[in-house]
Write a structure and sequence with these properties.
five-stranded parallel beta sheet, 46% helix, alpha/beta, globular, Rossmann fold
Length: 394
């Protein structure tokens, strides 16, 4: 079975001395539970795996009962260390308070009971962590699958990855367009909107949230002001509401609005956003072209490719912590600008029909970046770029 790089991170953290709760966070359907199961099969640490998937949210004692079960096994079998893994933890009300109480009790009692938490809702997990568990946990961030991972694990071609994106559960459906679209729509889009956001946030206009996602995803890798976006939505709202919804969608690992790169924060915040999906599958379920037609239309394929590069950069930014922007000044533009610890990297994506790169020269004159990269013809091959480690760009 294919192992992602996060396998080694999780395994090494579990085998370290007990110090922090390990929390695995990331978007839906990227294999968080699968990689934990792989680790559990290979480690020597005795453990128990429990899931809150079918536990009533109102069952307040469930987390404490899990802890007592782990403590009992540890005592009866006379283990010097033990591992408790709880999946779908976010489905239990006030889970973070219960975890804090039980973790602190073990710490006070010098009990070597290690803990791993994970769940399907990145939004709910991170909210609970910030509310109660400050100083008690480490995050292990997982994100969407890269081209190299989908190629090695499922045999996807480069064109298939650009079109179908990086959801492992959808890999078996790419030969059936209708089935693939249904999977992405129900297992990813509907589940994230309905379970992760609408059930746990005060959303005054649910229809507007969905429309914002669908239109923003369709415009992935394109700039569109929120005021113009309002004009295209059926359910009228205001720019503040749309901005808040866009932040929720970004927190869920679905869609973000990249800000324009500038030297001052005010200009960044007031810029027209460039919409960007975190996984190209989220854009292309709304595409009117099948893969066989899209990849033979150079101008259209250039849009697919730019969005795929942006999805790779933004999803990896969640793991590595660098910032992603775009830049435009008049007719000069740079598709993506990365910033990390004072270093700037400018990236321009060009399809086969595009060669103009005057924006790179103008950007270089203004900001003196650490590196300028052209992805496409006469530059780095897109399939090579999508296999790179983004941190090596800095």
């Amino acid at each position: 079975m294919y192992r992602r790089s996060s396998y080694e991170t999780i395994k090494s953290r579990i085998e370290e001395p007990r110090k922090f709760i390990q929390v695995i966070v990331g978007p839906r359907q990227i294999g968080k539970t699968t990689v934990v199961a792989q680790v559990l099969d290979d480690i020597q640490v005795p453990h128990i795996f429990l899931s809150a998937d079918n536990v009533p949210a109102s069952q307040r004692d469930w987390v404490s009962n899990c802890w007592e079960s782990a403590r009992s096994q540890m005592a009866l079998q006379k283990h010097e260390e033990f591992l408790l893994v709880i999946d779908e933890i976010q489905k239990v009300n006030n889970w973070s308070e219960a975890v804090k109480r039980e973790w602190d009790k073990d710490t006070l009692d010098h009990l070597n009971l290690k803990v791993v938490l994970l769940g399907s809702s990145r939004v709910m997990l991170e909210r609970g962590l910030s509310e109660s568990l400050a100083g008690r946990f480490e995050e292990i961030r997982m994100t969407h699958w890269t081209y190299a991972e989908m190629r090695d694990a499922f045999g996807l071609t480069f064109e298939e990855y650009v079109y179908y994106g990086g959801y492992p559960g959808a890999a078996d459906f790419i030969k059936d367009q209708v089935r693939w679209e249904q999977y992405i729509g129900s297992a990813i889009v509907d589940a994230t909107l309905n379970k992760d956001i609408l059930q746990n946030q005060v959303i005054t206009k649910p229809a507007l949230l969905r429309q914002t996602f669908e239109l923003g995803a369709a415009y992935s890798a394109q700039e569109l002001s929120l005021s113009k976006l309002i004009g295209q939505l059926n359910d009228a709202g205001n720019t503040t509401t749309l901005s808040n919804y866009l932040q929720l969608l970004s927190d869920a690992g679905m869609l973000c609005g990249l800000q324009k790169f500038a030297n001052d924060q005010a200009r960044k915040r007031n810029s027209v956003p460039k919409f960007q999906v975190y996984n190209n599958a989220l854009r292309n379920i709304y595409s009117e072209l099948p893969l066989t037609e899209a990849c033979v239309r150079p101008k259209e394929w250039g849009r697919y490719l730019e969005s795929a590069v942006g999805a790779f950069l933004t999803s990896q930014a969640f793991v590595y912590g660098y910032k992603v922007y775009y830049w435009r000044e008049g007719n000069d533009e740079v598709d993506y600008v990365l910033q990390h610890k004072g270093r700037i990297v400018a990236i321009e994506v060009k399809g086969n029909a595009e060669r103009t790169t005057t924006g790179m020269a103008a950007f270089s004159e203004h900001f003196h970046p650490h590196r300028l990269l052209l992805v496409g013809k006469e530059g780095i091959a897109p399939e090579d770029f999508l296999c790179c480690d983004p941190m090596e760009l800095f």
